[in-house]
Write a structure and sequence with these properties.
Strand content: 5-15%
Number of strands: 20
Structural class: alpha/beta
Radius of gyration: 26 Å
Number of helices: 22
């Protein structure tokens, strides 16, 4: 009996991901009558050092090592393969997944620990590899392989989805949960779930399982509903993560979601649901989001805009996902008071500095105020953008640099210090220079920190909705005449530190995308927007950074010359969480204006600035009501964020002391990457009296 080990390291190590790739390979292989039984070792699923990953495994017994490779685990998988080969040179090492570069005919020469690479879906070719090894046949008889001497032809598209990897392996899965979760060091787990495979779109930046621009392959309905029953009744899944590219693209997707919501009401499982939204069915997407939000399976809706200018989206072959269709969807969700966040990609061909500022500020014109997440255009090896013709057309220049995947290294629950991985970043095209890239990068980081962090958000709302200053003008001026202005020494020092950091990122092959916050002295790495947020919020003693706020107030009052802005900035400062806040005693805030209702209206307001002859003056609202007598508003908030769902939301550092208190405070403000903007300020309270 041949022994097989599958390595599919998680994206990070603080949560267990159920090993979907392993289960898919095992299920298909075990179902083939012409393949002898296989000894499947428990898969490698963590993301830590190689010795820990391989601890307790008899490496000499392994006949086949399969590597499921993604951007976040490629280097780790190569190290694992090297270690196995060192002990067991005859072990056959097969790499699959979207990361191995299929067009690089020297890849196996560069990585001699690899014997073969599977391209396209892995189930059938991996099973055929096992059969070939069992029968002593050469691998060049197997389709879909890249071998040292040849590339075998592709087979027909894989459509064998009748058997469920979850239902066929129930006992194994429940035992896996017992060993590695229930009795393990980490009781939290995520289940990756497919209902279909493939993506009909061909966005050049994407490589969705190397199945973009392909016909969608649907899994049988009966299988899916039985899987849901297993997930909630027996497995009791924490996080159900739908890994299809476009949930909502099919009419049946809404029915599937409704069934999940029904099960949530009946069983309280799953605890949360994550998914990638459909790109071109906004009406159904809204229905799905509302269903999930109403049963607290979702705390925000992600709007995958990538950019707001159609001319830029056309350059990445996103022309069949018109951005104009997203605005009514956002308005509908805002009317239902369901929070949205935007996802944007910086550095796309066709973009430039002015377009980028417009794109980011368009998102808040449309009413997405809870957060904007910006992702770099990383060149995935098998994505359309990485092909020679596309790179030549747009004169693409890149830098391969280190970064911590999603910044998870900073999480306090991270058990091991994972080394950064490397990715290829696009830093220049024929529509923007390297210097432009640097300015786009800096503007985006400052925008995310200040608007998303509720530092300048409320001031910009007043300037936009009452004074008629567009968000574009407000934030462009804030960047160019405040942060880049040496007269405002502190704000300018933040800009200079960030600018220097990314200049080094461009010029130094060993540079890392993230950086440390020296005052925290915790050894963790943060993204620049987090560095900026912390340093404009707090001083070295963890109190409010009055130096920044004085400069900001001076700039705003001089530029917009409206005295009510001082009242708003003072209100903003008073509403920020600080280390000395203790919910046992609460905090009282004096209010001379009804800022609460004013900000609430602005938060959910959606303006379509893409309309012909858009006139900002016709969208303005009155100033907030001024109270005849100042009122006292009190909070004893114990929850961070505007919405009651989500982890790590207790503001209980007031019960702690010393370093433990500081660590809890820092992690509460900086750890969350979504919905951070409502976690920096108080969200619940009541007026208790007039002054």
């Amino acid at each position: 009996m041949k022994t097989v080990l599958i390595s599919q390291p998680n994206i990070y190590d603080s949560k267990v991901f159920m090993p979907l790739v392993f289960l898919c390979l095992k299920t298909y292989t075990d179902s083939q009558d012409d393949i002898e039984p296989v000894n499947w070792l428990d898969p490698l699923f963590r993301n830590t050092d190689v010795d820990t990953m391989l601890q307790g495994i008899d490496l000499k017994s392994i006949d086949i090592l399969g590597l499921s490779c993604y951007d976040w685990n490629w280097n780790l998988n190569l190290k694992i393969a090297k270690q196995v080969k060192k002990v067991n040179p005859t072990c056959l090492v097969v790499a699959g997944g979207p990361h191995p570069d299929w067009k690089d005919d020297k890849l196996l020469e560069k990585h001699t620990q690899l014997d073969a690479i599977v391209y396209n879906d892995g189930e059938r070719p991996f099973a055929e590899i096992i059969k070939a090894v069992q029968q002593g046949q050469p691998l060049d008889t197997v389709n879909n392989l890249i071998l040292p001497h040849t590339k075998t032809p592709p087979s027909s598209v894989f459509k064998d989805f009748e058997l469920s990897p979850w239902l066929e392996n129930k006992e194994w899965i429940l035992e896996f949960k017992r060993k590695y979760i229930t009795e393990g060091a980490n009781q939290h787990f995520t289940l990756l779930w497919e209902t279909d495979r493939g993506c009909p779109f061909k966005c050049s930046f994407c490589d969705w399982g190397s199945a973009t621009n392909s016909k969608l392959r649907r899994f049988p309905n009966e299988r899916l509903y039985k899987e849901i029953d297993f997930f909630v009744n027996e497995l009791k899944v924490d996080v159900l993560y739908h890994v299809g590219a476009n949930l909502g693209i099919l009419p049946r997707d809404l029915d599937i979601v409704k069934y999940i919501c029904q099960k949530k009401k009946e069983t309280n499982y799953p605890k949360s649901f994550q998914y990638s939204t459909s790109k071109n069915t906004p009406e159904r997407t809204v229905e799905i989001a509302k269903e999930l939000y109403n049963v607290k399976l979702l705390k925000k809706h992600v709007v995958s805009l990538q950019h707001t200018m159609q001319s830029v989206l056309d350059c990445v072959d996103r022309y069949n996902i018109p951005v104009k269709r997203q605005i009514p969807m956002i308005r509908d969700l805002n009317e239902a008071k369901m929070p949205c966040i935007s996802q944007m990609i910086m550095g796309m061909p066709g973009d430039n500095y002015e377009y980028w500022i417009k794109a980011l500020t368009d998102t808040i014109e449309w009413g997405i105020h809870f957060e904007c997440r910006i992702y770099d255009f990383q060149l995935l090896p098998n994505a359309p953008a990485a092909q020679p013709g596309y790179m030549d057309k747009w004169k693409i220049e890149t830098r391969t640099r280190y970064h911590f995947i999603n910044g998870y290294h900073k999480f306090s629950e991270q058990e091991n210090a994972i080394a950064p991985t490397s990715s290829e970043f696009i830093v220049k095209t024929n529509t923007y220079s390297i210097d432009n890239w640097l300015e786009m990068k800096m503007f985006g980081k400052i925008f995310m920190a200040l608007h998303g962090g509720s530092i300048t958000k409320w001031t910009s709302m007043f300037c936009r909705n009452t004074l008629g200053i567009s968000y574009y003008d407000f934030y462009k001026d804030l960047y160019e005449t405040f942060f880049k202005n040496e007269n405002y020494q502190y704000a300018n020092s933040i800009y200079k530190q960030g600018h220097k950091h990314f200049q080094d990122f461009l010029n130094n092959n060993d540079a890392i995308d993230e950086l440390q916050i020296p005052v925290l002295n915790n050894g963790r790495y943060y993204q620049l927007e987090e560095f900026i947020l912390w340093n404009v919020l707090y001083n070295d003693q963890y109190g409010l950074n009055e130096t920044f706020w004085k400069e900001f107030e001076s700039y705003i009052l001089e530029k917009y010359k409206d005295p009510i802005l001082k009242e708003l900035i003072d209100f903003n400062k008073n509403m920020l969480f600080t280390l000395d806040y203790d919910h046992n005693h609460g905090k009282q805030i004096e209010c001379t204006y009804n800022w609460f209702d004013y900000i609430d209206f602005c938060t959910w307001n959606c303006s379509d600035n893409t309309e012909d002859n858009f006139d900002i003056s016709k969208t303005l609202i009155a100033r907030p009501e001024k109270y005849a007598n100042a009122r006292i508003w009190k909070t004893t908030d114990t929850k961070l964020g505007a919405f009651p769902m989500g982890p790590n939301q207790d503001s209980t550092w007031g019960n702690k002391h010393g370093n433990e208190k500081i660590e809890m405070f820092v992690n509460s403000i900086l750890v969350p990457t979504y919905m951070r903007g409502t976690r920096t300020v108080f969200n619940r309270g009541n007026y208790i009296k007039e002054k």
